Amino acid sequence: MSPDPIRRDAVLGNPLDAPAVARLLTPGGAVEALAEVLREGLDPEDCPPRTAVPVPAGELLLMPAASASWAGVKVAGVAPGNPALGLPRITGSYLLLDGPTLRPLAVIDGAALTSLRTPAVSALAIRHLTAPGRPSRLVLFGSGPQAYGHLEAVLAVREVTEAVVVGRDQERAARLVAHARDLGVPKARTGGAEDVAEADLVVCCTTARTPLFDGRLVAPGATVVAVGSHEPDARETDSALVRRAAVYVESRAVAAREAGDLLIPEAEGAVGPGHIAGNLAELVTGRAAPPDKETPRLFKSVGMAWEDLAVAVALYRAASDGET
User: Fold this and answer.
1) Which has the closest alpha carbon to 220: 240, 202, 194, 244?
2) Which residue of 10, 96, 99, 246 could cross-link 69, Cys pair, CB 3.0 to 4.6 Å?
3) In angstroms, rounded to a whole number, what is the distance separating the alpha carbons of residues 79 and 76?
4) Terminus-to-terminus CA distance in the chain, angstroms?
5) What is the C-alpha to C-alpha distance for residues 265 and 255, in angstroms, rounded to an integer?
6) For the whole prediction, is pTM greater than 0.85?
């Protein structure tokens, strides 16, 4: 995140709410913001750890990050009971600061930022783990905000000819199917876990704590992305898939603390601790490469503070450009 000529003498007049976040930065723009900081040399292994505090309603998360030019912190609430009240499961705010002086620059809706950056991380991994120019058959687990965000982010980096939505709530799943059709996916429908057998790309963005499908069904060369949990005792994928797949993560250190999709198979003895093939920075810079076409690929994401900072800076730049 290199220095730039943007004025930094005042906090933006209004917080960047969800509509502003959607207006200022496309999913593709968020993907490029993440890729840029990794190409510039950011090492995800050095990112400060997330602090999680249990509270009566759920969990409070504190996620700080900084570079020479920028600093920021996200305070997020994860309230599992909120959806039943018609409220978002994830709430919070992001405070962006000037790096050299730590003066506040902008306040950004935390849920909107998360809904933009998490799919962008997945899409960046997909861009480096899948072959360009080949239309994909997508199976998408989930029907909430992250599912919508992932659909749009995947479409920003790859052509999708078929999308199958697998969700517990059939009405919500049907709405996401309609959205996929509106976005130009020729074939979109609801389906079940068995559809992973025909998929080129499987995206899991749910609140599940146990595997969503049989990993033995995943086709050779298919890519699976799992983003739904950041807890060592929760997972969306099973040990069979982890044993078969070439595994990539945002950060080895963070995966070793938080990625139940990988830690549970390790505890079961299905894989050893050295089974990770690369992190996201290594993929982006070419230090790691996808395996041969006969091997499934698994990208496990838990969410990191450097990602929030990269996308927050891109949003701030876009907002500042609009004010000049």
Assistant:
1) 244
2) 99
3) 10
4) 21
5) 13
6) yes
219 is written with which tokens? 């086709």
Amino acid at 246: A
Q: Select from 127, 94, 106, 120 the least CA-distant residue to 29.
A: 120
Hey, what amino acid is at 29? G
Cα radius of gyration rounded to whole Å, the chain = 19
In angstroms, the CA 293 to CA 134 distance is 13
H or E segment to which residue 248 belongs:
strand 246-249
Largest CA distance in the chain: 58
Report the residue count for the chain.
324
Per-residue pLDDT of the chain (324 residues; tens, 9 = 90+): 544 444 444 445 578 999 999 999 999 999 999 999 999 999 999 999 999 999 999 999 999 999 999 999 999 999 999 989 988 888 899 999 999 999 999 999 999 999 999 999 999 999 999 988 888 999 999 999 999 999 999 999 999 999 999 999 999 999 999 999 999 998 999 999 999 999 999 999 999 999 999 999 999 999 999 999 889 999 999 999 999 999 999 999 999 999 999 999 999 999 987 899 999 999 999 999 988 888 999 999 999 999 999 999 999 999 998 764
DSSP 143: -
CA distances from 199 to 68, 139, 195, 196 (A): 42, 6, 7, 5
Q: Do the beta carbons of residue 114 and residue 30 sit within 8 Å?
A: no
Amino acid at the residue 196: V
Token readout for 204 is: 């899991």
Rounded Cα gap, residues 146 and 144, in angstroms: 6
* Contact between 236 and 202 (Cβ < 8 Å): no
* Nearest Cα residue to 224 out of 232, 243, 233: 243
Show Cβ contacts of residue 292 under 8 Å, excluding neighbours closer than 6 positions.
none
CA angle 182, 183, 185 (to 5 degrees): 95
How do the residues of the chain divide into helix, strand and coil, expressed in percent and rounded to 5?
40, 25, 35
Strands 246-249 and 223-226: unpaired
